[in-house]
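> call design_seq(struct)
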């Protein structure tokens, strides 16, 4: 009879006390999760802020060039799109994805790419181009390809216009005061504001579904990492006392709005990322969202 390695493991556990040995290994993590879960919301928020601060300190001490965080943020976003591409290729289904969020994402990427060509050109332009191509393919799969039959339109109920219009109005009010043409300055501000809230339709859709599809959860978590690293770049610049940034923050509304946009988009995804991490800490890998996450 062929001996299975899992039989050996089970027999070994039986000799050591069966499930007790395994329970002792898992108990500390489960206990911590349950303890945190039972805390009042204010205490959870406080501990979450402390954890974010400690992570910022770690990044501050380990990454010399903080502009690297911008590149890592865009790489994280591109990897998230890669997870979606794998899902679409493997499952031939777009269930759980918000077409409205994908359209908003493609819109701000296209605008940022256009502005980059007109105003500046660097490694960010290349990464934006790759991410835009991947996002456009996802939009094609959801709106044109045979996979569109699996799109859950009835749950994707936050129209893109409800997000686009306020961002455009805000861009006319607060935009860069550079030497570029007014049109380009407004477009740049528009894509900054739009990026901050582009994930809202996806979060609303997941909240209605209650249980988040696994690959969609991976994608949104990658977006959360991307937003955090982008926000961390600005916060670390302030902690280091960057004189140019400090002067900019005191020179008008636009620099403050940029920083505020980074903070807003980070906190929009923070709650989801907590539920994502908790699901894997508990060993289930199933992300369940309570009401009121958005």
């Amino acid at each position: 009879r062929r001996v299975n390695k899992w039989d050996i493991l089970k027999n070994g556990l039986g000799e050591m006390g069966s499930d007790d040995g395994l329970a002792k290994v898992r108990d500390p993590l489960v206990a911590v999760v349950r303890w945190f879960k039972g805390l009042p919301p204010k205490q959870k928020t406080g501990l979450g802020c402390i954890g974010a601060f400690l992570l910022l300190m770690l990044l501050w001490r380990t990454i010399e060039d903080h502009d690297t965080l911008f590149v890592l943020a865009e790489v994280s976003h591109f990897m998230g799109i890669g997870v979606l591409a794998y899902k679409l290729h493997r499952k031939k289904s777009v269930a759980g994805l918000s077409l409205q969020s994908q359209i908003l994402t493609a819109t701000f990427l296209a605008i940022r790419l256009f502005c980059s060509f007109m105003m500046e050109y660097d490694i960010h332009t290349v990464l934006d181009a790759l991410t835009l191509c991947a996002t456009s393919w996802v939009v094609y799969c959801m709106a044109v390809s045979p996979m569109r039959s699996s799109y859950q339109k009835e749950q994707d109920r936050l129209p893109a216009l409800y997000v686009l219009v306020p961002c455009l109005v805000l861009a006319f009010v607060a935009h860069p005061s550079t030497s570029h043409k007014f049109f380009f300055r407004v477009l740049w501000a528009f894509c900054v504001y739009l990026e901050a809230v582009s994930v809202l339709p996806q979060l609303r859709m997941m909240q209605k579904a209650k249980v988040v599809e696994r690959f969609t959860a991976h994608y949104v978590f990658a977006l959360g990492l991307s937003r955090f690293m982008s926000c961390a770049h600005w916060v670390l610049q302030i902690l280091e006392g960057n004189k140019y940034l400090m002067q900019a923050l005191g020179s008008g509304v636009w620099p403050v709005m940029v920083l505020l946009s980074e903070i807003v988009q980070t906190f929009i995804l923070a709650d989801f990322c907590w539920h994502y991490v908790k699901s894997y800490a508990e060993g289930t890998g199933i992300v369940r969202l309570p009401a009121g996450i958005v």
